[in-house]
Amino acid sequence: MENTMDGNLRKIFSKYNPIDCITLLYIFLTTLLLIFGTGRYENTAEHYLVRSGMFIFIWLIVRLEEMFPGRMLRILHQLYPLLFLSYFYPETCYLHSIFPGVLDAGIIRLEVALFGFLPSEAFSRCCPQAWFSELMHFGYFSFYLIILFLVVWYYIKYPLLAGKKVFIFLFSFYIFYLIFIFFPSEGPQYFLPVPEKKVPAGCFFTGLMQKILLFDRPTGAFPSSHIGITWLIMFFFFSDNRKIFCWWLVPAVLLTFATVYIKAHYVVDVIAGFLMVPPLVWSGNKIYDLFFATHTVPGEEPAMIETL
To answer: Of 93, 274, 73, 254, nearest to 187 (Cα)?
Structure first.
């Protein structure tokens, strides 16, 4: 009977893909934090309700794919956490509220000691031209474009690799978010006083980013997830298709400078974001291979690297 129960449990959990598992683990860990912070958090009912909805959604998408197997549902099953990220990121501001202080003052002292000035304040002051501001805001906006391209391109070009790439991508985001919760920092755009945090005006992309940043929160500056995720994706491109890597190299470099120019991050955040990439790639691969190797399609061939 025990073997039968064990077999039934294995059968149930085998329907959940690696992306479900890593997402459910993040939800579980942050739910524990909500429980731990009972009495110190306000309006926790909303967060418990959202989590309940997420659990139901995941269960439902698993059931639908089981009942109506097909490529579209399979892709939706692997990509739904992208919608969850839009909730998880601002929630880090709420979750870190029970921890005292932010890291910004220490980061500013470190940068002044290293450079003799604050680069995030000086950069935009030295380059106030409207065209340059527009270029920097386009660079920052390209973060959303490179994520969209990653998803679409891998599912079209290398569908057998897409699941693992998206797993490592989401795993990395969740690690960043946990750091943001336990080691909070706001970034120059929130921490600096009004004159120092002003950014020169541009045109279209400046206005677009200002609208997007209305939904932003004072959280997630150190280390920079924009830098970490962008260059993690660039590593994927470099590994699997050098032409695509070259196409995205300029936007990725612009984004790197833009994070400091628009005062979303300190230079220290950028450096830390870069340094996060190798351990995230390594640990994401190891975890996937250790726990989810059975989810690899039998006979799957590794993607051929396409060079220039």
So the answer is: 93
Is residue 281 included in any domain, yes or no? yes
Amino acid 67 reads M
Is residue 306 included in any domain, yes or no? no
> Which tokens belong to 53?
């909805």
Q: With b meaning 16 or more CB within 10 Å and e meaning fewer, what string describes 84-123? A: beeebbebbbbbbeeeeebbbeebbeebeeeeeebbbbeb
Is the Cβ–Cβ distance between 120 and 266 less than 8 Å? yes
Q: Give residue 93's domain range.
A: 2-295
Residues 70-115: tens digit of each pLDDT: 888 888 888 999 999 999 999 999 999 888 888 999 999 999 999 9
In sequence order, what are the beta bridge partners of 289?
none
In a domain, 308, yes or no: no
Distance CA 151, CA 166 (A): 7
DSSP state of 306: B
pTM of the predicted model over 0.85: yes
Condensed to tens digits (0 to 9), the pLDDT of residues 160-194 reads 889 999 999 999 999 999 999 999 999 998 888 87
Reported as a single tens digit per residue, the pLDDT across 264-288 is 999 999 999 999 999 999 999 999 9
Selection from 68, 57, 64 nearest residue 24 by Cα: 57
The radius of gyration computed from the CA coordinates of the chain, to the nearest angstrom, equals 21
Q: Is the pLDDT of residue 132 over 90?
A: yes
Quote the crossing angle between the two packed helices 18-36 and 159-182, to the nearest 10°: 10
**Residue 61 included in any domain:** yes
Geometric angle at alpha carbon 192, from 190 and 193, rounded to 5°: 105
Structural tokens at position 212: 């997007």
Q: Can you tell me the distance from the alpha carbon of 253 to that of 274, in angstroms, rounded to the nearest whole number?
A: 12
